[in-house]
Every structure is written in structure tokens, then in C-alpha cells.
Amino acid sequence: MNTPRCDQTQAWAALRSHYEGDGHQFDLREAFASDPGRFDALVVEAPGMFADLSKNRIDAASMKLLIDLARECQLEKRRDAMLAGAAINTTEDRAVLHTALRAPRGQGPFSDDVHGVLDAMLAYVESVRHTRASGIRHIVNIGIGGSDLGPQMAVPALEAFVHPELGFHFVSNVDGHDITSVLRHLRPAETLFVIASKTFTTQETMANAHAAKAWFVANGGTDTTKHFVATTTNVAAAAEFGIETTFGFWDWVGGRYSLWSAIGLPIALAIGADNFRAMLGGAHEMDRHFATAPLAKNLPVLLGLIDVWYRNFHGFTSRSVAPYHQGLKRLPAYLQQLEMESNGKCVDLDGNALPFATSPVVWGEPGTNGQHAYFQMLHQGTDVIPVEFLLVKHPTHDLADQHTKLLANGLAQAQALMLGKRSSQAMAERAPTAAKSLAPEIVARHRTFPGNRPSTTLLLDRLTPHSLGALIAMYEHRVYTSGALWGINSFDQWGVELGKALCGDLLPRMASGNTEGLDASTAGLMRRLLD
Ligand code: F6P
């Protein structure tokens, strides 16, 4: 599709002059002081969530120009092409149809295929969850990247919905410590292994799958057909491995967009068929929002536009995700793959080198833990790092007082980032810990906060399968939005291939000790390792 890249538009030039004019001096404190309607103007309701964008460095002028940018880049046309199943992943000549996986029966492309697998998988799920009959007590998902991070994020997030008699374990790393620490606590007769791999060739997953099978047999396991199941597009390879029960999916499901497919099997085993369908339902509602809401009220579009504004005009290099919900402890890792594998690219769709920056670094930890680790840098460091706070109104525990403290902490951090503390205020404070020899104005400098540090707050009423589905779909579309504006292919991942190929060359060398032709550093390190 021939659509302009962001930097070839009039809006881009207008954004540049706006930024270089008043835009870069924007101050959140002044913006709130001068506009009592700022909060109401910059909140967005979307399925499953309420978003406060008002603590971002945006005003009506920058917002209008960013929406102009989306229009000039023909974002809506690109979005519609993706949703209709055009082969927008051109370097792999594939459609990008994770949205079809959550479309209701009879709607969306490939509906019969999608619902055929889903029905079969959910029937299987219910049979395993009937633990007295199945005898299964532990599920071990063996997969990596997109075949791991989605289930690994969603199962703890939905802990309140998880079958009380089932334990869930995730093995991803080729490092043998990973699988051995899991298997140590298990018994073959009670264990179900899910071998999750789109390709069924990934080195780490295959190594762990073979290790699991060897452990199973060595420890008296008798019926591998009952205790091993595969989720893959490569049914033949799964059969060759000796697996009879396989739930398939298709090449138009990208690995990092695959938790809605058979790759979501551990999630479905954890929360059951109805809840898994509710998760798909929440994602579908977000898809409808993305497809139909006007750009100015379209949450994933607005967040994607702010991401471009920050990355390309403000020059912010990273974004921190702070979920104030312990269940979302793996959300930052999940988002790292979603965003950085999708948008960590340096050429456009036509192969031209990009003259601007793309994916930021995405990172974070659950609140309040992050506050006692790296928030110091967010408040007083030399970099400005936008923070995304995720707050959930109703917890699933009954420790009401702790929940109030949690929410107050999240609100306070966003407030502190924005308000900061002026030096005059710091001067007025007593600083009892400072050395007597230190002049008061020097002490005050250490206790000053620059403020004007942006954040977004996403509020969920409850963390449920439905709202989690909507949340993850929202992030997918947001990543798509910034990728589309940058004119990149957000759906390939050639960047992971070179290391895989070089590892293929080094492996036999590790056995033979042959370092000939290697660079001096790799050769020297290999010699030390083999000594
Ligand atoms: O890390 C690269 C990658 O291709 C990811 O995109 C993918 O999610 C992961 O490897 C696992 O691949 P597979 O599901 O084929 O084992």
C-alpha cells in the first residue's frame, strides 16, 4: 500500500515547528492552572478502561497536529487493510489477523477455522480441568517469546479465576536451570506438558521438550500421549515428536500476537472455557473501538500518537510501565516483546533507512516495588521517562486498607512526577539529615524535583478476563499505530535471526574446540569456557 511515511507529511513539519516554537516549553503545571477543563478534555473511555491522558505534554494544538499526522499517513486505511486480511506483513508475505481470533463466530476472516480449533481446544480444556477424572494437577508450558510471554503474563493476572487444584509452570530458557527447577517438584502422573511453538523448530523449546519427555519416561511416566499436547502451526513436526493431541493455528498469527490462539491453551486451562471466551470478547470490543471510534477519542490511536510525539520530537528514549497490581508483574515483559520486537526496526517498508527514531525501550515493575528501586531516577534523573500507571479499582482480596494504600501510592507517584518540587519549596523545608557544613541552598538543590514529567494513567474497574483482553488488544493497536506512522513492518522480526544463525555455527565449535576464523574476542572467550 502506497501511503506516506510520517516524515513526508505536512503535519510532521508543522509538529516540528510547533515543538521548536512553544511546544518544547510546555509545562504541565501551567497547563492545568490555565485550563480547568484539561482533565475532562483529555480523558478517554474505551472498553474495559478509563484513560487519563491529561498528565502528558500535549495541548490542543499538538493533539490536532498529531491527528492530522494520522490522517495524512492514512492510518484508518492501513488499519482497515489489516483488519480485512491484506498481506501487510510484506517481508513474510502474510496477513496479520490476530483480530480474527477474537471475532465472534460467523464474523471476521477464517471464522470456521478459528472457531473449529477454539471449540475443540475448549472442550479439551474442560476435560483436563475435571481433575478427578484427568488426574492432572500441574500444567507445564514449554515455549519461548510469543509462545510463553502471553500465558505467563495472563495466568497470574487472572489468579482469582484460576482452577484452585491446578498449578501452572512456565519453562522458556534453554538454560537447564529453568526446567530442572520446575521438574524437581512434579510427578509425571499429575503433569501435563504443553509444547508451545508456532514453528516447532525453536532451539530452546525443542531442547526443553526433549528434556521433559526424558524426565517423564525416566520417572515412570507411562502415557506420553495423555501427558503431552502441542500448540503449533507445524502439526507434522509435533506428530514426529510423538504428540497426538495438537491444537493448530495459522501463519497469519504472529508469535507475539498469539495468546488468543491455541497458544492461549494454558490460560484456558487456568481460567476455563467461559472465562477464556470472555477474554476474547474483551479483546474484540477493543478491536471494534479501534476500528470505529473517531481518532480523537480512539484510545490506542491517541496513545500511539503520543508515543510518536515523545519519541520523535521530545526525544524520550524509553517508557516505563508501572502496573499497580501484583498480578500484572509480567506485563512489562510481555509489552517488551510486543512493542520492541514489533517496532524495533531501522528501515521502512520499502527498505529505506529511517531518518528518525522508532521503538522506545519499554520496561518496568509492578508498583509499589518500582518506587523503592528506580523511581528515584524517574523523579530526579537527567532523562525524562514517561510512565504508564495502571490502577485497578476493585481488588480480588479483602485487604481493603492495603488496596487503598496501593492506589494512593500510584496516584501520588503520578502527581509527584508532574508537580515536582521547586527549589524555593525545598529551601523552606528543614533538612535534618544534611551535614552542618553544607549550605542550605546546596541541600535544597538535592531536594528539588524538576517536575513536568509526563505520565498516563489507565484505570480498570476490575482485572477480569474481559478487561485483560481489552487491555492487551489496546496495546497491540497502539503499537500498530506508531509502527504505521513510522512506515515500518511491525510484524516481522528479522533482528532475532542473525544470533540464531551464529549460534548454529558456534555449537559444533563448542564440541570440537575449533576457533579458526572467529574474531579474537569470541575465540578467546570460547577457549576459556572449554578449558
Ligand atoms: O524470538 C523470535 C521468535 O520468532 C518470536 O517472534 C516468537 O514468539 C518466538 O521466537 C518463538 O517462536 P516459536 O513459537 O516458533 O517457537
UniProtKB/TrEMBL annotation:
Residues forming the catalytic site: E341 (proton donor), H372, K500
Localization: Cytoplasm
Keyword annotations of the record: Cytoplasm, Gluconeogenesis, Glycolysis, Isomerase
List, in alphabetical order, the Gene Ontology terms for molecular function in this entry: glucose-6-phosphate isomerase activity
Pathway membership of this protein?
A: Carbohydrate degradation; glycolysis; D-glyceraldehyde 3-phosphate and glycerone phosphate from D-glucose: step 2/4; Carbohydrate biosynthesis; gluconeogenesis
InterPro entries in UniProt: G6P_Isomerase, G6P_Isomerase_C, Phosphoglucose_isomerase_CS, SIS_dom_sf, SIS_PGI_1, SIS_PGI_2
Q: What is its main location?
A: cytoplasm
> Which Pfam families does the record match to this protein?
PGI
The organism's superkingdom is given as Bacteria
* EC number(s) stated in the UniProt entry for this protein: 5.3.1.9
Reaction(s) catalysed by this chain's protein: alpha-D-glucose 6-phosphate = beta-D-fructose 6-phosphate
**What does this chain do?**
Catalyzes the reversible isomerization of glucose-6-phosphate to fructose-6-phosphate.
Q: Which family does it belong to?
A: Belongs to the GPI family.
**What is the protein's given name?**
Glucose-6-phosphate isomerase
